[in-house]
Write a structure and sequence with these properties.
Elements (H helix, E strand, L loop, with lengths): L1 H36 L38 H16 L15 E2 H13 L3 H12 L2 H5 L9 E2 L5 E2 L2 E2 H17 L6 H13 L10 E3 L2 E2 L4 H10 L5 H13 L1 E2 L4 E2 L11 H10 L6 H4 L5 E5 L6 E5 L10 H14 L2 H12 L3 E2 L7 E2 L25 H12 L17
Antiparallel strand pairs: 1-2, 2-3, 4-5, 5-6, 7-8, 9-10, 11-12
Helix pairs in contact: 2-14, 3-4, 3-6, 3-14, 6-7, 6-8, 8-10, 10-12, 12-13, 12-14
Length: about 425
Protein backbone atom coordinates (compact mmCIF):
# COMPACT_ATOMS: atom_id res chain seq x y z
CA UNK A 1 0.00 0.00 0.00
CA UNK A 2 2.85 2.38 0.85
CA UNK A 3 4.38 1.62 -2.54
CA UNK A 4 1.11 2.47 -4.28
CA UNK A 5 0.90 5.78 -2.44
CA UNK A 6 4.50 6.58 -3.34
CA UNK A 7 3.76 5.85 -6.99
CA UNK A 8 0.68 8.08 -6.88
CA UNK A 9 2.75 10.87 -5.37
CA UNK A 10 5.39 10.55 -8.09
CA UNK A 11 2.73 10.59 -10.82
CA UNK A 12 1.04 13.66 -9.33
CA UNK A 13 4.35 15.51 -9.04
CA UNK A 14 5.28 14.76 -12.65
CA UNK A 15 1.83 15.80 -13.80
CA UNK A 16 2.21 19.15 -11.99
CA UNK A 17 5.61 19.73 -13.60
CA UNK A 18 4.17 18.86 -17.01
CA UNK A 19 1.29 21.31 -16.53
CA UNK A 20 3.74 24.05 -15.49
CA UNK A 21 5.73 23.40 -18.66
CA UNK A 22 2.60 23.68 -20.81
CA UNK A 23 1.66 26.92 -19.01
CA UNK A 24 4.99 28.61 -19.77
CA UNK A 25 4.92 27.46 -23.42
CA UNK A 26 1.45 28.96 -23.89
CA UNK A 27 2.51 32.19 -22.12
CA UNK A 28 5.57 32.58 -24.36
CA UNK A 29 3.47 32.07 -27.51
CA UNK A 30 0.94 34.62 -26.26
CA UNK A 31 3.64 37.27 -25.74
CA UNK A 32 5.17 36.63 -29.16
CA UNK A 33 1.79 36.85 -30.91
CA UNK A 34 1.05 40.08 -29.06
CA UNK A 35 4.22 41.66 -30.41
CA UNK A 36 3.50 40.51 -33.94
CA UNK A 37 -0.13 41.62 -33.93
CA UNK A 38 0.83 45.11 -32.80
CA UNK A 39 -2.64 45.64 -31.49
CA UNK A 40 -2.85 43.73 -28.22
CA UNK A 41 -1.46 44.75 -24.86
CA UNK A 42 -0.63 41.41 -23.22
CA UNK A 43 3.08 42.21 -22.80
CA UNK A 44 4.06 43.31 -19.29
CA UNK A 45 5.07 46.99 -19.17
CA UNK A 46 8.70 47.49 -20.19
CA UNK A 47 8.75 51.24 -19.63
CA UNK A 48 10.70 52.15 -16.52
CA UNK A 49 8.93 55.51 -16.36
CA UNK A 50 5.19 54.81 -16.45
CA UNK A 51 4.17 58.04 -14.71
CA UNK A 52 2.16 60.56 -16.69
CA UNK A 53 4.11 63.56 -17.94
CA UNK A 54 4.16 66.37 -15.40
CA UNK A 55 2.81 68.84 -17.94
CA UNK A 56 -0.07 68.82 -20.41
CA UNK A 57 -2.27 65.79 -20.93
CA UNK A 58 -2.24 64.10 -24.35
CA UNK A 59 -4.11 66.03 -27.01
CA UNK A 60 -7.39 64.34 -27.96
CA UNK A 61 -7.99 63.49 -31.58
CA UNK A 62 -8.81 60.79 -34.07
CA UNK A 63 -6.00 58.66 -32.66
CA UNK A 64 -8.02 58.13 -29.47
CA UNK A 65 -10.60 56.01 -31.27
CA UNK A 66 -10.16 52.31 -30.51
CA UNK A 67 -10.32 50.02 -33.51
CA UNK A 68 -8.53 52.22 -36.07
CA UNK A 69 -7.14 49.84 -38.65
CA UNK A 70 -9.40 46.97 -37.57
CA UNK A 71 -11.52 47.01 -40.74
CA UNK A 72 -11.29 43.45 -42.17
CA UNK A 73 -11.32 44.75 -45.73
CA UNK A 74 -8.61 47.33 -45.14
CA UNK A 75 -5.16 47.09 -46.73
CA UNK A 76 -2.78 45.76 -44.01
CA UNK A 77 -0.22 48.47 -44.77
CA UNK A 78 -2.87 51.19 -44.51
CA UNK A 79 -4.06 49.72 -41.22
CA UNK A 80 -0.51 49.67 -39.91
CA UNK A 81 0.10 53.31 -40.85
CA UNK A 82 -3.11 54.21 -39.00
CA UNK A 83 -1.85 52.48 -35.86
CA UNK A 84 1.52 54.23 -36.12
CA UNK A 85 0.01 57.63 -36.73
CA UNK A 86 -2.56 57.04 -33.99
CA UNK A 87 0.30 56.56 -31.54
CA UNK A 88 1.85 59.88 -32.59
CA UNK A 89 -1.53 61.59 -32.20
CA UNK A 90 -2.04 60.15 -28.74
CA UNK A 91 1.28 61.35 -27.36
CA UNK A 92 0.80 64.87 -28.76
CA UNK A 93 0.26 67.28 -25.88
CA UNK A 94 -2.24 70.13 -25.76
CA UNK A 95 0.56 72.59 -26.50
CA UNK A 96 1.27 70.73 -29.76
CA UNK A 97 4.53 69.10 -28.70
CA UNK A 98 5.33 65.39 -28.62
CA UNK A 99 7.53 63.68 -26.05
CA UNK A 100 10.33 61.61 -27.56
CA UNK A 101 9.05 58.33 -26.11
CA UNK A 102 5.78 57.03 -24.73
CA UNK A 103 5.20 58.25 -21.15
CA UNK A 104 8.37 60.33 -21.39
CA UNK A 105 9.15 63.76 -19.98
CA UNK A 106 11.63 64.97 -22.60
CA UNK A 107 10.76 66.94 -25.74
CA UNK A 108 13.26 67.02 -28.62
CA UNK A 109 13.38 69.60 -31.40
CA UNK A 110 14.50 66.96 -33.91
CA UNK A 111 11.79 64.49 -32.90
CA UNK A 112 9.10 67.16 -33.21
CA UNK A 113 10.38 68.08 -36.67
CA UNK A 114 10.07 64.39 -37.63
CA UNK A 115 6.57 64.18 -36.14
CA UNK A 116 5.52 67.26 -38.14
CA UNK A 117 6.90 65.61 -41.28
CA UNK A 118 5.02 62.39 -40.52
CA UNK A 119 1.76 64.32 -40.15
CA UNK A 120 2.47 66.19 -43.39
CA UNK A 121 3.23 62.92 -45.19
CA UNK A 122 -0.07 61.38 -44.05
CA UNK A 123 -2.09 64.52 -44.79
CA UNK A 124 -2.93 65.37 -41.17
CA UNK A 125 -1.88 68.97 -41.58
CA UNK A 126 -3.65 70.21 -38.45
CA UNK A 127 -1.43 67.99 -36.34
CA UNK A 128 1.69 69.30 -38.08
CA UNK A 129 0.44 72.86 -37.63
CA UNK A 130 0.04 72.32 -33.88
CA UNK A 131 3.79 71.57 -33.70
CA UNK A 132 4.87 74.32 -36.07
CA UNK A 133 2.57 76.89 -34.43
CA UNK A 134 4.28 76.24 -31.11
CA UNK A 135 7.72 77.08 -32.50
CA UNK A 136 6.36 79.88 -34.67
CA UNK A 137 5.12 81.61 -31.52
CA UNK A 138 8.70 81.60 -30.20
CA UNK A 139 10.52 83.13 -33.16
CA UNK A 140 11.27 86.36 -31.33
CA UNK A 141 11.65 85.04 -27.79
CA UNK A 142 13.87 82.06 -28.67
CA UNK A 143 14.93 81.67 -32.31
CA UNK A 144 16.08 85.28 -32.67
CA UNK A 145 17.16 85.76 -29.06
CA UNK A 146 20.69 85.53 -27.66
CA UNK A 147 22.95 83.38 -29.82
CA UNK A 148 19.92 82.38 -31.90
CA UNK A 149 18.40 79.05 -32.84
CA UNK A 150 15.88 76.88 -31.03
CA UNK A 151 17.05 74.86 -28.05
CA UNK A 152 17.62 71.16 -28.60
CA UNK A 153 15.40 70.03 -25.71
CA UNK A 154 12.59 71.28 -23.50
CA UNK A 155 10.20 70.00 -20.84
CA UNK A 156 6.60 69.02 -21.57
CA UNK A 157 5.69 72.51 -20.36
CA UNK A 158 8.03 74.04 -22.93
CA UNK A 159 10.91 75.10 -20.68
CA UNK A 160 13.98 74.94 -22.98
CA UNK A 161 17.29 73.29 -22.12
CA UNK A 162 20.45 72.00 -23.77
CA UNK A 163 22.37 73.51 -26.66
CA UNK A 164 21.14 75.21 -29.80
CA UNK A 165 22.13 72.45 -32.18
CA UNK A 166 22.60 73.11 -35.90
CA UNK A 167 21.28 69.76 -37.12
CA UNK A 168 18.07 69.85 -35.09
CA UNK A 169 17.26 73.38 -36.23
CA UNK A 170 17.99 72.36 -39.81
CA UNK A 171 15.45 69.54 -39.51
CA UNK A 172 12.83 71.98 -38.26
CA UNK A 173 13.51 74.04 -41.39
CA UNK A 174 13.21 70.88 -43.52
CA UNK A 175 9.78 70.29 -41.96
CA UNK A 176 8.74 73.88 -42.74
CA UNK A 177 10.01 73.54 -46.32
CA UNK A 178 7.82 70.46 -46.79
CA UNK A 179 4.80 72.21 -45.31
CA UNK A 180 5.38 75.23 -47.55
CA UNK A 181 5.60 73.01 -50.63
CA UNK A 182 2.54 70.88 -49.84
CA UNK A 183 0.18 73.18 -47.91
CA UNK A 184 0.90 76.89 -47.55
CA UNK A 185 4.09 78.76 -48.54
CA UNK A 186 3.26 81.80 -46.40
CA UNK A 187 2.03 80.59 -43.01
CA UNK A 188 5.53 80.02 -41.57
CA UNK A 189 7.53 82.24 -43.91
CA UNK A 190 8.97 84.37 -41.08
CA UNK A 191 10.20 81.33 -39.14
CA UNK A 192 11.52 79.87 -42.38
CA UNK A 193 13.54 83.02 -43.16
CA UNK A 194 14.91 83.35 -39.61
CA UNK A 195 16.04 79.72 -39.46
CA UNK A 196 17.70 80.19 -42.86
CA UNK A 197 19.42 83.33 -41.60
CA UNK A 198 20.64 81.67 -38.37
CA UNK A 199 22.02 78.62 -40.17
CA UNK A 200 23.91 80.83 -42.62
CA UNK A 201 25.35 82.82 -39.70
CA UNK A 202 27.17 79.68 -38.51
CA UNK A 203 29.34 79.48 -41.63
CA UNK A 204 33.07 79.83 -40.95
CA UNK A 205 35.63 81.38 -43.29
CA UNK A 206 36.65 77.89 -44.49
CA UNK A 207 33.09 77.24 -45.67
CA UNK A 208 32.26 74.79 -42.87
CA UNK A 209 29.49 75.33 -40.36
CA UNK A 210 29.82 75.45 -36.60
CA UNK A 211 27.60 72.85 -34.94
CA UNK A 212 25.49 75.46 -33.14
CA UNK A 213 26.04 77.19 -29.81
CA UNK A 214 26.57 76.03 -26.25
CA UNK A 215 25.92 79.15 -24.23
CA UNK A 216 28.29 81.75 -25.67
CA UNK A 217 30.58 79.12 -27.24
CA UNK A 218 30.28 77.62 -30.69
CA UNK A 219 29.98 73.84 -31.03
CA UNK A 220 32.59 72.03 -33.11
CA UNK A 221 31.82 71.39 -36.76
CA UNK A 222 30.19 68.04 -37.51
CA UNK A 223 29.48 66.44 -40.85
CA UNK A 224 25.94 65.31 -40.11
CA UNK A 225 24.85 68.83 -39.14
CA UNK A 226 26.42 70.28 -42.27
CA UNK A 227 24.54 67.79 -44.47
CA UNK A 228 21.29 68.73 -42.71
CA UNK A 229 22.00 72.44 -43.20
CA UNK A 230 22.85 72.05 -46.88
CA UNK A 231 19.53 70.28 -47.37
CA UNK A 232 17.53 72.77 -45.29
CA UNK A 233 18.74 76.00 -46.91
CA UNK A 234 16.91 76.30 -50.22
CA UNK A 235 18.48 77.21 -53.55
CA UNK A 236 22.13 77.33 -54.50
CA UNK A 237 24.47 80.24 -53.80
CA UNK A 238 27.87 80.93 -52.22
CA UNK A 239 26.69 79.41 -48.94
CA UNK A 240 26.21 76.04 -50.62
CA UNK A 241 29.27 76.37 -52.86
CA UNK A 242 31.58 77.12 -49.94
CA UNK A 243 30.05 74.38 -47.81
CA UNK A 244 30.55 71.83 -50.58
CA UNK A 245 34.16 72.95 -50.89
CA UNK A 246 34.69 72.45 -47.16
CA UNK A 247 33.15 69.00 -47.19
CA UNK A 248 35.22 67.98 -50.20
CA UNK A 249 38.54 69.16 -48.74
CA UNK A 250 38.01 68.50 -45.01
CA UNK A 251 35.35 65.81 -44.66
CA UNK A 252 35.75 63.46 -47.58
CA UNK A 253 37.97 60.40 -48.06
CA UNK A 254 38.77 60.12 -51.76
CA UNK A 255 40.08 56.57 -51.47
CA UNK A 256 36.94 55.24 -49.78
CA UNK A 257 34.61 57.67 -51.55
CA UNK A 258 32.85 58.47 -48.28
CA UNK A 259 32.05 61.49 -46.15
CA UNK A 260 34.08 61.47 -42.94
CA UNK A 261 32.21 61.91 -39.68
CA UNK A 262 35.10 62.02 -37.18
CA UNK A 263 38.49 62.70 -38.80
CA UNK A 264 41.41 60.83 -37.25
CA UNK A 265 39.22 58.68 -35.02
CA UNK A 266 38.19 55.03 -34.81
CA UNK A 267 34.65 56.17 -35.59
CA UNK A 268 35.65 57.74 -38.87
CA UNK A 269 32.37 56.95 -40.59
CA UNK A 270 28.73 57.13 -39.49
CA UNK A 271 25.66 55.54 -41.04
CA UNK A 272 23.55 58.68 -41.43
CA UNK A 273 26.22 60.34 -43.56
CA UNK A 274 25.64 57.58 -46.12
CA UNK A 275 21.84 57.81 -46.25
CA UNK A 276 21.43 61.55 -45.74
CA UNK A 277 24.37 62.34 -48.00
CA UNK A 278 22.79 60.32 -50.79
CA UNK A 279 19.38 61.98 -50.29
CA UNK A 280 20.84 65.49 -50.09
CA UNK A 281 23.58 65.90 -52.70
CA UNK A 282 22.72 65.77 -56.38
CA UNK A 283 24.36 62.91 -58.28
CA UNK A 284 25.94 61.45 -55.12
CA UNK A 285 27.15 57.95 -56.07
CA UNK A 286 24.99 54.97 -55.10
CA UNK A 287 28.17 53.24 -53.95
CA UNK A 288 27.85 55.10 -50.64
CA UNK A 289 24.76 52.98 -49.93
CA UNK A 290 26.54 49.77 -50.89
CA UNK A 291 29.38 50.65 -48.50
CA UNK A 292 26.93 51.00 -45.62
CA UNK A 293 27.25 47.20 -45.37
CA UNK A 294 30.05 47.91 -42.88
CA UNK A 295 27.31 48.61 -40.29
CA UNK A 296 25.12 45.56 -40.96
CA UNK A 297 24.53 43.23 -38.04
CA UNK A 298 21.97 40.81 -36.62
CA UNK A 299 20.60 41.03 -33.09
CA UNK A 300 17.86 39.52 -30.94
CA UNK A 301 15.28 42.10 -29.86
CA UNK A 302 14.75 42.77 -26.17
CA UNK A 303 11.00 42.80 -26.70
CA UNK A 304 9.83 39.48 -28.11
CA UNK A 305 13.28 37.93 -28.61
CA UNK A 306 12.99 38.15 -32.41
CA UNK A 307 16.06 37.98 -34.66
CA UNK A 308 16.41 41.16 -36.72
CA UNK A 309 19.02 42.37 -39.22
CA UNK A 310 19.73 46.02 -39.90
CA UNK A 311 22.24 48.83 -39.57
CA UNK A 312 24.19 50.08 -36.57
CA UNK A 313 25.17 53.76 -36.25
CA UNK A 314 28.89 52.90 -36.46
CA UNK A 315 31.38 50.06 -36.78
CA UNK A 316 30.71 48.74 -33.27
CA UNK A 317 27.73 46.90 -34.77
CA UNK A 318 26.30 46.10 -31.36
CA UNK A 319 22.69 47.18 -32.09
CA UNK A 320 20.25 47.44 -34.95
CA UNK A 321 19.54 51.17 -35.00
CA UNK A 322 15.96 51.27 -36.17
CA UNK A 323 15.83 54.99 -36.96
CA UNK A 324 18.99 54.66 -39.03
CA UNK A 325 17.68 51.54 -40.76
CA UNK A 326 14.60 53.53 -41.74
CA UNK A 327 16.84 56.24 -43.16
CA UNK A 328 18.61 53.61 -45.26
CA UNK A 329 15.27 52.28 -46.58
CA UNK A 330 14.33 55.80 -47.74
CA UNK A 331 17.73 56.17 -49.42
CA UNK A 332 17.36 52.77 -51.15
CA UNK A 333 13.94 53.86 -52.39
CA UNK A 334 15.44 57.04 -53.81
CA UNK A 335 18.14 54.97 -55.53
CA UNK A 336 15.53 52.66 -57.06
CA UNK A 337 16.94 49.70 -55.12
CA UNK A 338 13.60 48.04 -54.36
CA UNK A 339 15.13 44.76 -53.23
CA UNK A 340 17.12 46.28 -50.39
CA UNK A 341 14.37 48.77 -49.53
CA UNK A 342 11.80 46.00 -49.17
CA UNK A 343 14.23 43.72 -47.35
CA UNK A 344 15.06 46.15 -44.54
CA UNK A 345 11.51 47.49 -44.36
CA UNK A 346 10.44 43.91 -43.58
CA UNK A 347 13.15 43.69 -40.92
CA UNK A 348 11.87 46.88 -39.29
CA UNK A 349 8.34 45.49 -39.25
CA UNK A 350 9.55 42.66 -37.00
CA UNK A 351 10.36 45.17 -34.26
CA UNK A 352 6.90 46.75 -33.99
CA UNK A 353 5.60 46.74 -30.43
CA UNK A 354 2.14 47.62 -29.09
CA UNK A 355 1.58 50.73 -27.02
CA UNK A 356 1.38 50.20 -23.27
CA UNK A 357 -1.09 53.09 -22.92
CA UNK A 358 -3.22 53.35 -26.04
CA UNK A 359 -5.38 50.75 -27.77
CA UNK A 360 -4.77 49.95 -31.44
CA UNK A 361 -1.48 51.87 -31.44
CA UNK A 362 2.03 50.66 -32.09
CA UNK A 363 5.51 51.88 -32.96
CA UNK A 364 9.19 51.04 -32.94
CA UNK A 365 11.81 51.43 -30.21
CA UNK A 366 15.04 53.28 -30.90
CA UNK A 367 17.18 50.13 -31.00
CA UNK A 368 16.77 46.38 -31.07
CA UNK A 369 18.68 45.78 -27.84
CA UNK A 370 20.89 47.60 -25.31
CA UNK A 371 24.20 48.87 -26.69
CA UNK A 372 25.99 51.99 -27.80
CA UNK A 373 25.03 54.97 -29.90
CA UNK A 374 27.51 56.61 -32.31
CA UNK A 375 30.86 56.37 -30.54
CA UNK A 376 31.17 54.48 -27.28
CA UNK A 377 28.37 56.14 -25.29
CA UNK A 378 25.76 53.78 -23.89
CA UNK A 379 22.14 54.16 -24.96
CA UNK A 380 19.64 55.28 -22.35
CA UNK A 381 17.52 52.83 -20.38
CA UNK A 382 14.43 51.97 -22.42
CA UNK A 383 15.93 52.72 -25.84
CA UNK A 384 15.27 49.08 -26.76
CA UNK A 385 11.85 48.70 -25.09
CA UNK A 386 9.91 51.98 -25.36
CA UNK A 387 8.23 53.23 -28.54
CA UNK A 388 10.02 56.35 -29.75
CA UNK A 389 9.14 59.11 -32.22
CA UNK A 390 12.27 59.00 -34.39
CA UNK A 391 12.18 55.32 -35.40
CA UNK A 392 8.40 55.36 -35.77
CA UNK A 393 8.51 58.47 -38.00
CA UNK A 394 11.21 57.05 -40.27
CA UNK A 395 9.26 53.78 -40.52
CA UNK A 396 6.20 55.78 -41.63
CA UNK A 397 8.34 57.60 -44.23
CA UNK A 398 9.60 54.24 -45.52
CA UNK A 399 6.10 52.73 -45.70
CA UNK A 400 4.84 55.73 -47.66
CA UNK A 401 7.93 56.09 -49.86
CA UNK A 402 8.27 59.63 -48.54
CA UNK A 403 11.69 61.31 -48.65
CA UNK A 404 11.65 64.48 -46.49
CA UNK A 405 14.87 65.68 -48.11
CA UNK A 406 13.50 65.51 -51.64
CA UNK A 407 11.82 68.92 -51.37
CA UNK A 408 15.13 70.79 -51.86
CA UNK A 409 17.10 68.09 -53.71
CA UNK A 410 17.03 69.57 -57.23
CA UNK A 411 18.78 72.89 -56.78
CA UNK A 412 20.82 73.14 -59.97
CA UNK A 413 24.25 72.55 -58.46
CA UNK A 414 26.92 73.28 -61.10
CA UNK A 415 28.81 70.16 -62.16
CA UNK A 416 32.09 71.95 -61.39
CA UNK A 417 31.11 72.27 -57.71
Amino acid sequence: MQGVKTMEYILIRHMRNFLKFIFWVVLSLTVSLSVLSCGEKDIPPHNTDQNDPSGDEPKPGDGDKPGDGDNPGENPETAQIKQLESWLENIQLKNGLLTSVESGNNVSLYDNALAALAFIATGHYDRAEAILDYFNSRVKSELCNGTGGYYQFRSVNGVPSGNRWLGDNAWMLIAINNYAAKVDPDRYSTMQKELDRWIRSLQDTDGGLWGGTDGAKVIAKNTEGMIDAYCAVCGYDDFHKNLLSHLRTKRYDKNDGLLVSWPGNKYKYALDNHSWGYCTFEDFPKSVLDKASMYLNTQRTTVGGITVTGFAPDIDRDIVWLEGTGQMVVAYQKAGDKANADKYLAEMKKTLIPSQRYDNCCGLPYSSNPGTTYGSSQLWTGADTNICVSSTAWYIFALLGFDPMEVTYSRGTPASD
